[in-house]
Here is the input.
Amino acid sequence: MSELKYSYKYPHPAVTADCVIFGFDGVSIKILLVKRGIEPYKGKWAFPGGFMRIDETSEECAKRELDEETGLKTSSVEQFYTFTDVHRDPRERVITIAHIALVRLSEVKGGDDAEVARWFAQGDIPSLAFDHDHILRMALKTLKERICFEPIGFELLPEVFTMSELQNLYEAILEVKFDRRNFYNKMLKLGILSEAEPRSADASRRTPSKYKFNATKYAELKQKGFRLEF
Amino acid sequence: MSELKYSYKYPHPAVTADCVIFGFDGVSIKILLVKRGIEPYKGKWAFPGGFMRIDETSEECAKRELDEETGLKTSSVEQFYTFTDVHRDPRERVITIAHIALVRLSEVKGGDDAEVARWFAQGDIPSLAFDHDHILRMALKTLKERICFEPIGFELLPEVFTMSELQNLYEAILEVKFDRRNFYNKMLKLGILSEAEPRSADASRRTPSKYKFNATKYAELKQKGFRLEF
DNA sequence: ACAAAAGTGTTAGGCCTACACCCATGA
DNA sequence: TCATGGGTGTAGGCCTAACACTTTTGT
Here is the structure.
């Protein structure tokens, strides 16, 4: 058994990092899944992820695996829960540190191989490998909570966006409908939006105003602690 | 090296579960620490915790270690973050799943050995072993967030308590001061408090009313999703 | 007597919610 | 021409925040 090179006095679980990747296409939340090429659960869809190396943090691992499996390079992933059920992996004891990443679909270049990695609409997720259905439920719950404390939505939208797009995003994540005028007022009052370009004179009334995220204002607000009420 | 009985093809980190235990003595938040009896960090204070067995979840591990090291039996611990810095333990690669538990000091029987396990007031915490200072900061932040969504305060107070005690608890956790009348009104309006005993006729005006937590009302509220605004 | 704790109610301002009309465009 | 999307403002109600006095008790 010369391949079992790493020995310990006590049993050690294996540790993986998984990545729930959210995107937004203007209508619905999308989730990136990869199709498993090996057993167990060969052929089933799962979140990108893999075994943590001994010299990397869970965030580094999540980013590395994400890149390796989907070609997606993202700057920030954030852990949200660690799943430790004893039998969650049939091979050996594996715990997984689950992460969330938000990406702009507009910046994702066409997938390398749609047979291997694909975006699924939130309402259209197949049954997943391992306990990934459970992980997904927790990730969606975490996303709902976070969007009320941090303007994470801006990481899902293009740099410049319309108010309707922003509203659609909030409605998709929180699964509620808002009054359009009230949403406008609330967002503008918050002060973290800037008009991307003053409405040009020739803009017809039909042309929506474009906004972008004002990071300076957001930093100020975050100092004082703020909350988006919905 | 016959004692290295557990071998793997790839290196596995060790996994521990640590437990940040909060109590409340009516004035300030207390945190339970244990003094390390072995290297590394021998003699330093740390959170109770230890290596996860191969057949237990992180919550089970946290509860078991808590009992073993402090004699405290608690029914619920909840993980809040997993610390994966590569060098957080000088012995080997160790990641720790950190948990929070809330206990009623009134139900804790006198500590077995104050030299080994002791309650420290929040403002009076010594420098801790490993990265436990960091863990503590995160735990306090998590506690602040949770208290706004769930009436976790009731797990820290005796079953029957006065409004002032409740207010003191919120002020201690959130590190702010509230107007007494507004706090009364807000809490009563929430509807999750019941008067423990109708004010007896001979109660002087100085005698505070006693309340207890109304679990039924809370369950209803939680269904609809609620939030304590502070 | 004085300080400390507890009970109690009002007011003003801000925020939330609900709601309607007009214009421009594309089908 | 009709449906759709976008821009815009107001009125009522609720909640919040600020605020003072009285009673009792212990020192």
